[in-house]
Amino acid sequence: xxxxxxxxxxxxxxxxxxxxxxxxxxxxxxxxxxxxxxxxxxxxxxxxxxxxxxxxxxxxxxxxxxxxxxxxxxxxxxxxxxxxxxxxxxxxxxxxxxxxxxxxxxxxxxxxxxxxxxxxxxxxxxxxxxxxxxxxxxxxxxxxxxxxxxxxxxxxxxxxxxxxxxxxxxxxxxxxxxxxxxxxxxxxxxxxxxxxxxxxxxxxxxxxxxxxxxxxxxxxxxxxxxxxxxxxxxxxxxxxxxxxxxxxxxxxxxxxxxxxxxxxxxxxxxxxxxxxxxxxxxxxxxxxxxxxxxxxxxxxxxxxxxxxxxxxxxxxxxxxxxxxxxxxxxxxxxxxxxxxxxxxxxx
Length: 347
Description:
- The protein is an alpha+beta fold.
- The strands form three sheets. It has an eight-stranded mixed beta sheet, covered by helices on one side. Strands 9-10-13-11-12 form a five-stranded mixed beta sheet, covered by helices on one side.
- A hairpin with a 2-residue loop joins strand 4 and strand 5.
- The chain is elongated and about 85 Å long.
């Protein structure tokens, strides 16, 4: 064996991520299982202790395909072959286990128990269907309250009833459904994940009161943006192994896709938001979206300032036109605006 993993050391590294990702990780695994129609999650504090009892159960007819994947780091995952499934590193369950005092995974192919004496396989203890993950997770009362709030940020698939502590998590209806080419992670014939663009569906949701707009990967929040909308991308999102950072170029492509689909919903104030300006930097922003942004910001009577002809600028202003000066946009934004004929020079 080449490596040993210090479970306590790994747990300390993971603490800074909070605890909500633990439930997110297990929920996404359950959603991805073949034929699943219901996922049930319970989280209950253990009295007088800084830990909680967590159970995640699904009804997939097949259950866990290979029980060894519960404890084998970086084993070849069937999910990496499919960009429309969430997993890729076969790492999530192991990170979850690092934060557990004890755990049991029971499925159609057997049961594995993790406790203070190690790992114990019970291949004859099988479920007729589905998988149940049960664990005691290290968690303070404050962390518990945060998890209970964050779970309601999930966007469950419409075909999978997802319950948390006896409450059905609603499948929200997007304000807009669109599609476009976005960077994802595709598995080649050699089994190596590589980034490549692929056309995918994108669901755009209005955040609920108190929520921070975020990018989602198939219902799982992966990065807060603070933009106007939640953006739920229906394929693997290019992320670091910690699943907490998006490449700048990818986020700009996402914002352009959203702007193209929602520009008609912009307010005057919203048209100058940071995410809109970032979208205007992207080569995929459409002429119609640019026109609508300029209409909201400057009205339909507008011209661009001519720095060599102050008199023409003054004349345009006198005739009721809004004069847009060069500093209002970056060079790239002006390039896209002029290509879209979204403004006219002062005469």
